[in-house]
Amino acid sequence: MNLKRVLAAGLAASIVSATPALAAGCGNGASGFPAWLAQFKAEAPRYGLKPRAVERALSGVSYDSKVIKLDRSQHSFKLSFEQFYRKRVNNAMIKRGRQLQQRYAGIFRRIEKRYGVPAPVLLSIWGLETNYGSFSGNMSVLRSLATLAYDCRRSRFFTDELVAAIQIVQRGDMRPQEMRGAWAGEIGQTQFLATNYLKYAVDFDGNGRRDLIRSSPDALASTANYLKAHGWRRGQGWGPGTANYNVLKQWNKATVYQKTIGVMASKIAQ
């Protein structure tokens, strides 16, 4: 999960937000949540949300105290690179990455042709985020985002994310019950924030839906699309000092995570 990315994005959103703040006040604790939710539903059409989509997305949504507890317990990455890498990566992951590179060779060739991002980089991100799609989270994305949008700590940032998540439902990419992910609302096999899902998700398997949870081709191509949009340079390396290494920092602000992506990708490529 890209917690560092969530924290950094939240800081930026406190300065400039793509979505005007809702009139509904934030709160601390479960008691004010029903009133806040009712106000959000009433004002949601201001953001281009259709009432039917809002009701579908938020039907039965309640305050989640577990999400608040997890939000309050986050800390910056304090491990050294060696400690972090040893904790997150092992030989079995590298071997699995190489196997998947062969299994999906055709898909990776098509992705690199379109976006310029090579397979080892995408495999590294895929492996680090969700162990190659084996676990992308089991919490309700909409419940988590509604809880965090109501909570005063980063209400404006998560209101934007909640609006984006409802837009994902509205445009037909996923049904509300399918949207399960990490505690802070990250979605899919490479853990996209909802706003990034709207901007960069692509339908690479051609089934008419951008499904980053169940479709590995969609998830991998969308990740490549994100990296390309942030300046990835085709045919160049990704080690320290390169432009592409700086692009990896856009994926995750933590230096140890950025370096781990690069080193793991290089090992997969060997």
Question: Can you give a write-up of this model?
Answer:
- This protein is mainly α and about 270 residues long.
- It has 14 helices and two strands; from the N terminus they run ααααααααβααβαααα.
- The protein has helices at about 5-15, 35-45, 50-60, 65-70, 80-90, 90-105, 105-115, 120-130, 140-150, 155-170, 195-200, 215-230, 245-250, 255-270, and strands at about 140, 180.
- A two-stranded antiparallel sheet has the order 1-2.
- The longest helix has 16 residues, at about 155-170.
- It is globular and about 55 Å long.
In short:
The chain has 270 residues and is mainly α.
Q: Can you count the beta strands?
A: 2
Mean pLDDT metric? 91
Query: Main beta sheet, described?
Result: 2 strands, antiparallel
What global shape is seen? globular
The end-to-end span amounts to 26 Å
Order of helices and strands: HHHHHHHHEHHEHHHH
Helix content: 55-70%
What is the radius of gyration computed over CA atoms, rounded to a whole number of angstroms? 19 Å
Helix and strand composition category: mainly alpha
Uncertain spans: 7-23
Q: What topology, given as strand order, has the largest sheet?
A: 1-2
Strand content: under 5%
- Separate helix tally: 14
Topology (SSEs and partners):
Layout: H1 3-13, H2 33-43, H3 51-58, H4 65-72, H5 81-88, H6 91-103, H7 105-115, H8 119-130, E1 139-140, H9 141-150, H10 155-170, E2 180-181, H11 194-200, H12 216-229, H13 243-251, H14 255-269
Helix pairs in contact: 3-10, 6-8, 6-14, 7-12, 8-14, 9-10, 10-11, 11-12, 13-14
Defining traits:
two-stranded antiparallel ribbon; mainly alpha; globular; 2 strands; 14 helices; 270 residues
